[in-house]
Design brief:
Number of helices of chain A: 17
Helix content of chain B: 40-55%
Number of strands of chain A: 14
Strand order of the largest sheet of chain B: 1-12-11-10-13-14
Largest sheet of chain A: 5 strands, parallel
Strand content of chain A: 5-15%
Bound molecules: iron/sulfur cluster
Shape of chain A: globular
Distance between the termini of chain A: 32 Å
Radius of gyration of chain A: 23 Å
Strand order of the largest sheet of chain A: 12-11-10-13-14
Largest interface: A-B, 83 and 90 residues
Oligomer: heterodimer
Strand content of chain B: 5-15%
């Protein structure tokens, strides 16, 4: 037993987090920043944080993750990190020549109270920022929020760049939230199919899914350009996908540039994708092409084909709030029973949404925002499930409890392909169903006694 | 990479110049001292600047003090509850990510390696102090797990707000009575690299655990293995060989370690040091306090393993052991030579670059030599000058502000447990027989003349080195992996081995031969260009069959 010390009896813990279902803000900010064209993320703090965030993102995306750091030592920690950051900005522009530096803070620089805008001002005055280049920043102390809020904060810092304008550009701003590069690509494809002109940020497609050619560029072609991000202030509206990841930026665009916004769920599964497509065509004033209706029909077809295997099956889910909300809805919509749901990120709203989505189910639902995988495991011990959906760390629970696992969310450290195959949209729905059914039937093939081991299932 | 690209002529001085070319003058000046062309002048090894601060904004390969302490040294211990005091991230990232394997097979053994525990500090803890939360978390961990020991690790903000983690640990230890609680001031910003964290970890283990075991070990040939972390099961393979030879490994620091193994380390009769960087001072302290001599060994590479076993046998000076060791070497070498012979023609004359944390960039050169490969450039992520130039330079190392941060503990012979293992005459005789004590020559002497040694290599220089010198293989860590591979050069992680291992010992050597063969001869590197990119001109028309 890998988690042999996890007791069945659940006792309340006030101080000890065991096996977290979240990590710290800067890593989210770093991922978001990689979705800006020509951007080098910069971690303002000691170098260890940056090393950890780069390693984890590298292990998940299997792509180079470049990011610089202010490399604080004791001196900077006592006297403030301004000198380090100024020096870093100069070195970065000289050596790597990025278009943009996106700085995020860490718990260290936040605790000593470094003031990013003031340091940027000084850099500007000292001519450390070459003409036409951009430095932006987001506060991401790791003792607040989680990797999800860190992502959101950096996206909001992008929205700060948006320039208000009386002339509209005819485009819709899409803020996709923390999804895979493949998902961002898929969202763009769907928008194109509906005939919507969009400005999407951040956009990690073309950045974190690059080809192997013998050439390496620290700044691949993909990403949302600063010009486009500035231009989002002239958008006709903003669709924010996911309350936790995207809403803050969208609301800022609204208050700052008078671009109206709508916060949707992330388009995972049938219903959330329906709503996404429907609102897309409404705001763009187009009609949905047949092609999309066909894709949708295929997903519905697959649901009907697979329904027999899914009906009434219990699922335990761990992950991030925006993704979990849509996934829970998807599972309920195919008559599965998500019974244990843990998000590492806090938020009362999350628990409320999940309760609403699962209200029609007859079974009890355990849900916790700000929970950990230790509690999640205890829940599973007390009430078994047929399937776990979550990140790679869930594999320890899956093995101990002998349960199938579908890897989904962040981080996935032990499987590959997720950066290339979308799970959003109708096509993504097909992939999710395929993975879920594969996991369930593989288990059945393994467990069935010889006499009921059948070729045709 | 196609054969056509292989004929690259480079001159080390040109390479160095190219590496520095783009830097702002101040950065270039600093880096110039950390990039060294290996050309030993009469009896001297060239000097290198090492263990100095990383330059802000230059993308470094290094991690932090906490990573060295929690991740490297304490990570592989199975029955100590490790509790990170700080915001959630630090705990999260060090959770199962270093591939140090543990064998706690039967369910009665404690194994907390799969658990990540943290006080998950919030802003209120930062404002009002986190000591109360820490005490409560220790209490909760104790109530749930009842472990033998709880180790507390401070992360960056803890040092800044001034939580007295040692006082909290002391109080809790007293309160429990049956659980040792101790703490590490290993905030990430202390020191300039992981190396500081190793030091802090080792000092505390030495202070709070070593020497406290009450079970007596009375096997005949007892050693400690220092600086081996059981990545990919290396330690398992080494233990297998030692056992086969009849040598007892009392305690590995810290691969597959347990509390009791640490606690019994004082009972060994010889300390064998693998990774010099991460632990040489523990070997010294074990000698001073308990009278255990130490030697530098290396179990990476079949020849190196054989040599190290012979060294150990010579030390114990027992004919039966010496014969047994020879028999084991002879037996194990059969399979090793077979694989080596098969692979050699495909690896010979290929070139490699090695940039790993501490001693690995040195140790792995043995394995590459066995494959007929040449290391054309190497260096350490967090080495000190003695790792490059040998221990002789230690007295001349200057202590700067950053090294002064790291507590040096002063040890004296233990009034009860000190017991010299060899007399002065015996030691002199052994020295004559070729057993060098307390000695390490460092990386530079193993590198050929004209090769390039770089301390604290960064991403920019790595890329440049690869482009200029076109090695057949690059070895570093996960952060470097994919940028190097995009350049069309295979990259092997030597911190955590990608998915492979073990690579230590005899079985490890054969694993490594095959892995390197696979890497440098993979067909994938021939596919980088599509046919129409190889010959873009339309010189002929397509003829339908
Ligand atoms: S929690 Fe803070 S110190 Fe730890 S990795 Fe995250 S930002 Fe760095
Ligand atoms: S060099 Fe290797 S063994 Fe030594 S501390 Fe570093 S990673 Fe560990």
């Amino acid at each position: 037993m890998l988690l042999r010390h996890t007791p069945t009896e659940i006792k309340e813990r006030k101080a000890l987090m065991i096996n977290p279902a979240k990590t710290c803000q800067p890593i989210g900010a770093m991922y978001a920043a990689l979705g800006i064209k020509g951007c080098l993320p910069h971690s303002h703090g000691s170098q260890g944080c940056c090393a950890y965030h780069r390693s984890t993102l590298t292990r998940h995306y299997k792509e180079p993750i470049s990011a610089a750091t202010s490399s604080f030592t004791e001196g900077a920690s006592v006297f403030g990190g301004q000198a380090n950051l100024l020096q870093a900005i100069e070195n970065i522009f000289t050596v790597y020549e990025p278009e943009v530096i996106a700085v995020h803070t860490t718990c260290l620089s936040e605790t000593i109270g470094d003031d990013l805008p003031q340091i940027f001002n000084k850099a500007e005055k000292e001519n450390k920022i070459p003409k036409g280049k951009t430095v932006l920043g987001a506060p991401t102390p790791s003792y607040v929020g989680s990797h999800v809020t860190g992502f959101s904060n950096m996206v909001k810092a992008m929205a700060v760049l948006a320039e208000p304008s009386a002339r509209k550009n005819g485009k819709i701003n899409i803020i996709p939230g923390w999804v895979e590069p493949s998902d961002m690509e898929e969202i763009k494809r769907l928008c194109t199919l509906v005939g919507t002109r969009i400005n999407m940020f951040p956009d990690t497609s073309g950045v974190l899914d690059t080809p192997l050619t013998g050439k390496y560029s620290m700044f691949p072609k993909g990403g949302a350009s600063i010009a486009d991000i500035r231009d989002s202030g002239s958008g006709i509206g903003t669709l924010a996908l996911g309350e936790w990841c995207s809403a803050d930026a969208a609301r800022l665009l609204d208050s700052k540039c008078k671009v109206p916004c709508s916060v949707l769920d992330m388009p995972f599964g049938l219903k959330a994708t329906d709503r996404f497509i429907d609102i897309l065509r409404t705001v763009a004033g187009t009609s949905v092409p047949d092609e999309i209706a066909v894709e949708r029909g295929k997903l519905v077809d697959m649901i009907s084909d697979m329904h027999q295997y899914f009906y009434g099956k219990k699922v335990a889910l761990a992950g991030d709030p925006d993704q979990l909300i849509s996934m829970t809805e998807f599972l309920v919509s195919i008559d599965m029973h998500p019974v244990h749901i843990v998000s590492g990120t806090s938020g009362k709203k999350f628990e409320k949404r999940i309760k609403e989505i699962t209200a029609e189910m007859e079974c009890e639902v355990n849900v916790k925002a700000g929970g950990d995988l230790f509690l999640f495991h205890q829940w599973i011990k007390n009430e078994g499930v047929d399937l776990i959906i979550g990140n790679s760390y869930c594999k320890y629970i899956a093995r101990d409890e002998d349960l199938p696992l579908v890897r989904w969310g962040f981080p996935i450290l032990d499987r590959q392909g997720h950066q290339h195959f979308p799970t959003v949209g109708y096509k993504g729905g097909l992939r999710l169903l395929e993975q879920i059914l594969g996991a369930l039937l593989d288990r059945r093939d393994r467990d069935d006694p010889e006499e009921s081991f059948e070729l045709v299932l | 990479m196609g054969k056509a690209h292989k004929l690259v002529q480079w001159d080390p001085h040109n390479v160095k110049e190219k590496l520095l070319e783009k830097y702002p003058p101040k950065v270039a000046r600093k880096r110039a001292k950390q990039i060294m062309i290996n050309e030993a002048l009469e009896n001297t090894t060239p000097e290198i600047v090492a263990n100095v601060r990383t330059i802000p904004g230059i993308i470094t390969m290094r991690g932090c003090t906490y990573a060295g302490c929690k991740g490297v040294i304490m990570g592989p211990t199975s029955d100590i509850v490790n509790l990170a005091h700080g915001p959630i991230g630090c705990g999260f990232y060090a959770w199962l990510t270093r591939r140090n394997q543990t064998d706690a097979k039967n369910d009665t053994n404690s194994n907390y390696i799969t658990y990540c525990m943290s006080t998950d500090m919030h802003d209120s803890d930062i404002i009002f102090g986190g000591e109360k939360k820490l005490a409560a978390a220790i209490q909760e961990a104790y109530d749930i797990f009842h472990p033998k020991a709880i180790a507390v690790f401070a992360t960056c903000p803890v040092g800044l707000i001034g939580d007295d983690i040692h006082a909290v640990a002391r109080n809790m230890k007293e309160k429990f009575g049956d659980c040792n609680v101790f703490a590490f001031s290993c905030e990430g910003y202390k020191g300039v690299s992981q190396s500081a964290g190793h030091h802090i970890a080792n000092n505390q283990v030495f202070t709070h655990v070593v020497g406290s075991s009450t079970t007596e070990k009375n096997q005949k040939f007892k050693i400690n293995l220092l600086g081996e972390y059981n990545i990919g099961g290396d330690g398992f393979e080494i233990d297998r060989i030692l056992e086969k030879c009849g040598i007892t490994n009392i305690s590995t620091f810290s691969g597959n370690a347990t509390y009791d193994k640490f606690a019994s380390a004082n009972q060994a009769d010889l300390s064998c040091v693998m990774c010099h960087r991460s632990i040489n001072y523990v070997a010294d302290m074990l000698e001073t306090k308990y009278g255990i001599p130490w030697i530098k060994i290396n179990f990476v590479g079949a020849e190196a393993t054989a040599k190290s076993l012979r060294k150990i046998a010579t030390y114990f000076n027992d004919q039966e052991l010496i014969d047994r060791v020879e028999a084991v070497i002879a037996e194990e070498m059969v399979a090793v030579s077979e694989v080596q012979k098969e692979v050699y023609p495909r690896t010979v004359d290929k070139t490699a670059m090695l940039f790993v944390g501490g001693s690995r960039a040195h140790h792995y050169q043995e394995l590459f030599k066995e494959l007929g490969m040449k290391t054309i450039s190497a260096g350490y992520e967090f080495g000190h000058r003695d790792d490059y130039e040998g221990r002789d330079v230690i007295p001349f190392l200057k202590t700067d502000a950053d090294s002064r941060n790291i507590e040096e503990i002063h040890v004296e012979p233990d009034p009860e447990l000190f017991q010299p293992r060899k007399t002065a005459e015996e030691l002199a005789a052994l020295k004559k027989a070729g057993v060098e004590f307390k000695s390490y020559d460092g990386l530079n002497p193993v590198m050929d003349n004209g090769t390039i040694v770089v301390d604290d290599l960064n991403q920019y220089e790595a890329e440049k080195l690869v482009q200029l010198m076109k090695p057949d293989l690059f070895c570093a860590g996960i952060k470097e992996k994919f940028s190097i591979q995009k350049l069309g050069v295979p990259m092997k992680q030597l911190h955590s081995y990608d998915s492979g291992g073990p690579y230590a010992g005899f079985a490890g050597a054969t694993n490594f031969y095959r892995e390197i063969d696979r890497l440098v001869n993979s067909k994938v590197w021939n596919y980088l260009k599509a046919p129409w990119q190889e010959k873009p001109e339309l010189s002929a028309t397509y003829v339908w069959e």
